């Protein structure tokens, strides 16, 4: 871990970062480049083709040269268009840099190390070759340059990087792929110095029962020696010391011991230890020392049963992840890496597949410390490396990463990009002998007892899980646009969770891979529909699937509905879906809250009472009850909020359940007066007036024509409804009459609509009661109106949010007061604003639409109301955007459609293959509903409700 950063503005410099040990017996590091995408060093650079080519300029290292304004952009699939002419993209980048070597390094062995360079890399020091050209972009490689260096003057480093490889199999495996391809030295470059007698590397195999074995590879021994191994815990307490003899002729030795009272490593308990390994001569003089972090854990694949960590079956809740950031492409900062790791944990995931190449080492260190299972992958996107090209790359992959406890599997390529001749190479270099798997998209390519077949539907998944193999799809529910991801996952995950033979799931993919095009005024480009596949936006904006997955994958599951039952006694059914933790290691908080009101100036809720519930004792994978001791007057509050935190104090999920029903929440909302109302009737229109509001209705169609608020001088173009979104209706008769203090107009219909009853009270609040009957399998039912979309500014509502919903993606949207500014986000392209404004929103009690014409208020005392806002892009095929949307553009619905994925046959027309929740709505019988409208700004005298916005996001951090 780097502990000092020195920026030096000289041409000849010790460069950006110099780590020197207080003890010369340790490896010493001197960075020639920067340490990451945020901390870079400027080198001289010459690009052979494309932008800014043909002359020497400056470039930041590490970086992808396209993002520095050089060369050409290309997406891997471009080769399908250009065919044999794909070499058009074969730019070369020539780098130069000067550096000095510390005098103290004389007599040491010095290597130059590249952590990642795309793709073929030729290295020279002082005009002399450092070694053979390295082929392969994503791997750490090094050269011994001891004999090439000057100690009395500056050294010149020259590096030539070819974007395309001279080895066709390297291009096939990692360049001709379904992702953006780049050129350049995109990970750090550094020098490392060691004594002549040193330890090259160690391979640690530490089991969860405390058995510790370590393979130690020594170099340059001039005499017999000893290896002293000291194991310390996170508090630096020594828990084991072992002394092992090593002969100067030994290529490697095995250190073994039994360590007692250890804490094992899992995703839920990521306990790390440090092995300090000292090479010592016979007289006790220290020759060399290295420190390696590791964890005690055991991996087993029990054929036909499951994947076991430390003797317990686990199921992967995972996602595929590219190393990518829009501004810097494959070159990442430490902050980028940490952001991704924390987002994985926030989604309650416990696993990540490194697609389709090994990640930065820092990301693996984060997975070790935070607790994330890793599938570490050899590149190979549907085509594979030859054995000649692949063997050294497997070695580089494994030797860099072999001691990370987070790595559970090695992936040999992707979807046909598996060279089976390389399977045994992983085991050759991995002292732990981790399982090797074959991620694939065709049946019959299983390996190590694991079938990883991609993109099965719900029913074929059932079939595979009833077969003989462990099933762990390494890609599923492709999340292009707003499809897949969290949509249908509730059904899929319950299927996997309940199956003995499931190894878990990995969704495609974590984030949209939209690059910031430096040749297109910094616009984001996802290459059409190719790269907007994320659960998150390109800058990790949270899309709808993020929220759904967080609830679905929560290891604490509460059977808490959106509406608290009237008979609630404080007990809530709880399921513990942790693999290792008892719920008594978690903490549970509750709060009774009042929602902000329609005319308040803040969103969310105000906490009125709060407390901590006793954590129940429920073993992993078992069920029990959470008991909350609520005050006697709890029914006087709007909602109950419960938060569960894990053993590290991290929020797992927040559940919100309404205590009051909609009618109670809307009490005093639709206010009435005893003043008179009026009605005006002509041959074609009814005009009903209450207070400052007038509503005009068409006698022939029964539709709203217009509304006006004289107090605010509002004329709202909300009209052309109610129109049935499914079925047909024609006005048969109408009548106008007075009902108590309300003016009423009632229409009766033929067809699927039975009646619509409009009434207005003296305050101007307008009620619309209606009943319709539709039968069969329907994507949606209800009524629609029209409103000019370009007039809308924002929405604010009490209902599900913050993200829009689908029938098969309701999870992750608790009932609260939310607000959203109008946007027309198209996933993966600028401008990107999440959550999307347009879509379906469920369990709406009230909604306020702000427009350039004024305010429109909508409410319902009934449950189950969905409001659809406008037409929107959700999922595309070659014909038209899907799915079908209702007529009109603002709809009041009793059911909404599911969403599919781009890989479903017929897209959303065949969503039923994704399980019960993805079927159309099975509609039967009639439906009655009441809607309230106010056209304009209602008058309110309840100034007590105009709170300043509280810090609602931190309500539970901390709670006394």
TrEMBL record:
Residue ranges of every copy of the Glycosyl hydrolases family 2 sugar binding domain listed in the record: 55-195
Gene3D superfamilies in UniProt: 2.70.98.10, Galactose-binding domain-like, Glycosidases, Immunoglobulins
Pfam families for the chain: Glyco_hydro_2, Glyco_hydro_2_C, Glyco_hydro_2_N
Start and end residues of each Glycoside hydrolase family 2 catalytic domain: 300-515
Any one GO biological process: lactose catabolic process
Record field: catalytic activity: Hydrolysis of terminal non-reducing beta-D-galactose residues in beta-D-galactosides
Residue ranges occupied by any Glycoside hydrolase family 2 immunoglobulin-like beta-sandwich domain in the UniProt entry: 205-297
Coiled-coil ranges from the UniProt annotation: none
Subunit structure: Monomer.
PANTHER family named in the record: BETA-GALACTOSIDASE
Family label: Belongs to the glycosyl hydrolase 2 family.
Record's protein name: Beta-galactosidase
């Amino acid at each position: 871990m780097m502990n000092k950063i020195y920026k030096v503005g000289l041409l000849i410099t010790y460069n950006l970062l110099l780590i020197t040990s207080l003890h010369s017996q340790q490896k010493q590091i001197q960075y020639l480049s920067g340490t990451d995408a945020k901390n870079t060093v400027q080198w001289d650079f010459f690009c052979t083709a494309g932008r800014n080519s043909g002359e020497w300029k400056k470039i930041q290292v590490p970086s992808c040269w396209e993002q520095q304004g050089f060369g050409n952009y290309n997406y891997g699939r471009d080769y399908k268009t250009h065919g044999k002419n794909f070499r058009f993209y074969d730019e070369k980048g020539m780098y130069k840099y000067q550096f000095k070597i510390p005098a103290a390094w004389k007599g040491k062995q010095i290597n130059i190390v590249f952590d990642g360079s795309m793709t073929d890399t030729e290295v020279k020091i002082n005009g002399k070759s450092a070694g053979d050209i390295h082929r392969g972009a994503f791997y750490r490689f090094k050269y011994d340059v001891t004999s090439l260096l000057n100690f009395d003057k500056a050294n010149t480093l020259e590096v030539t990087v070819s974007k395309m490889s001279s080895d066709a199999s390297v291009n096939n495996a990692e360049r001709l792929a379904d992702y953006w391809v780049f050129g350049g030295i995109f990970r750090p470059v550094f020098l490392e110095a060691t004594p002549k007698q040193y330890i090259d590397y160690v391979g640690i195999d530490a089991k969860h029962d405390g058995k510790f074995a370590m393979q130690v590879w020594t170099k340059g021994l001039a005499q017999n020696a000893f290896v002293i191994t000291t194991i310390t815990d996170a508090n630096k307490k020594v828990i084991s010391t072992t002394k092992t003899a090593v002969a100067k002729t030994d290529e490697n030795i095995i250190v073994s011991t039994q360590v007692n009272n250890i804490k094992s490593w899992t995703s839920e308990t990521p306990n790390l230890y440090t092995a300090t390994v000292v090479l010592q001569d016979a007289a006790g003089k220290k020759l060399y020392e290295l420190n390696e972090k590791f964890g005690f854990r055991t991996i087993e694949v029990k054929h036909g049963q499951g994947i076991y960590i430390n003797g317990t079956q686990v199921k992967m809740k995972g996602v595929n992840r590219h190393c990518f950031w829009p501004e810097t492409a494959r070159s990442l900062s430490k902050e980028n890496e940490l952001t991704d790791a924390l987002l994985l944990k926030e989604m309650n995931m416990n696993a990540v597949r490194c697609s389709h190449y090994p990640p930065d080492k820092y990301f693996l260190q984060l997975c070790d410390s935070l607790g994330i299972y890793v599938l570490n992958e050899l590149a190979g996107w549907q085509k594979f490396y030859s054995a000649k090209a692949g063997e050294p790359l497997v070695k580089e992959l494994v030797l860099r990463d072999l001691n990370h406890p987070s790595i559970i599997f090695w992936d040999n390529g992707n979807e046909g990009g598996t060279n089976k001749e390389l399977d045994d190479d992983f085991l050759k270099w991995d002292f732990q002998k981790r399982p090797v798997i074959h991620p694939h998209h065709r049946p019959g390519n299983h390996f190590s007892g694991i079938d990883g077949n991609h993109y099965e539907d719900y029913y074929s998944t059932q079939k595979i899980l009833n077969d003989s193999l462990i099933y762990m799809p390494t890609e599923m529910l492709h999340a292009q646009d707003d499809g897949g991801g969290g949509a249908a996952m509730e059904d899929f995950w319950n299927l996997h969770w309940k199956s003995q033979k499931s190894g878990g799931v990995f969704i495609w993919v974590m984030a949209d891979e939209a690059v910031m095009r430096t040749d297109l005024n910094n616009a984001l480009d996802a290459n059409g529909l190719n790269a907007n596949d994320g659960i998150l936006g390109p800058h990790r904006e949270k899309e709808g699937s993020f929220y759904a997955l967080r609830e679905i994958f929560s290891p604490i599951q509460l059977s808490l509905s959106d509406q608290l039952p009237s008979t609630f006694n404080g007990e809530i059914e709880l399921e513990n879906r942790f693999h290792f933790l008892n719920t008594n290691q978690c903490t549970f908080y509750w709060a009774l809250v009042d929602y902000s009101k329609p005319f308040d100036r803040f969103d969310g809720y105000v906490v009125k009472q709060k407390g901590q519930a006793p954590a129940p004792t429920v073993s992993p994978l078992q069920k029990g009850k959470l008991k909350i001791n609520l005050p006697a007057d709890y029914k006087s509050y709007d909602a109950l909020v419960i938060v569960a935190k894990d053993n590290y104090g991290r929020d797992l999920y927040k559940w919100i359940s309404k205590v009051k029903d909609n009618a109670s929440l809307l009490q005093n909302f639709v206010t009435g007066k005893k003043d008179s109302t009026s009605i005006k009737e002509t041959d074609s229109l009814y005009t009903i007036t209450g207070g400052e509001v007038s509503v005009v209705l068409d006698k022939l169609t029964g539709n709203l024509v217009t509304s006006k608020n004289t107090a605010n001088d509002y004329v709202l173009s909300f009209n052309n409804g109610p129109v049935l979104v499914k079925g047909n209706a024609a006005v048969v008769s109408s009548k106008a009459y007075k009902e108590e203090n309300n003016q009423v107009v009632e229409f009766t219909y033929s067809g699927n609509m039975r009646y619509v009853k409009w009434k207005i009270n003296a305050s101007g609040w307008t009620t619309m009661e209606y009943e319709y009957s539709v039968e069969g399998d329907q994507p949606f039912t209800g009524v629609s109106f029209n409103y000019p979309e370009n007039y809308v500014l924002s929405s604010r509502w009490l209902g599900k949010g913050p993200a829009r919903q689908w029938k098969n993606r309701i999870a992750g949207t608790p009932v609260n007061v939310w607000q959203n500014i109008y946007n027309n986000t198209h996933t993966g392209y600028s401008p990107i604003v999440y959550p999307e404004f347009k879509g379906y929103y469920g369990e709406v009690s009230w909604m306020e639409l702000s427009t350039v014409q004024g305010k429109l208020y909508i409410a319902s005392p009934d449950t189950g109301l969905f409001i659809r806002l406008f037409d929107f892009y959700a999922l595309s095929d070659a014909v038209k955007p899907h799915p079908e949307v209702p007529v009109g553009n603002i709809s009041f619905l009793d059911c909404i459609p599911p969403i599919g994925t781009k890989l479903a046959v017929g897209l959303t027309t065949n969503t039923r293959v994704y399980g019960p929740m993805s079927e159309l709505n099975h509609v039967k019988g009639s439906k009655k509903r009441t809607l309230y409208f106010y056209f304009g700004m209602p008058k309110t005298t309840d100034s007590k409700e105009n709170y300043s916005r509280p810090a609602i996001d931190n309500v539970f951090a901390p709670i006394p």
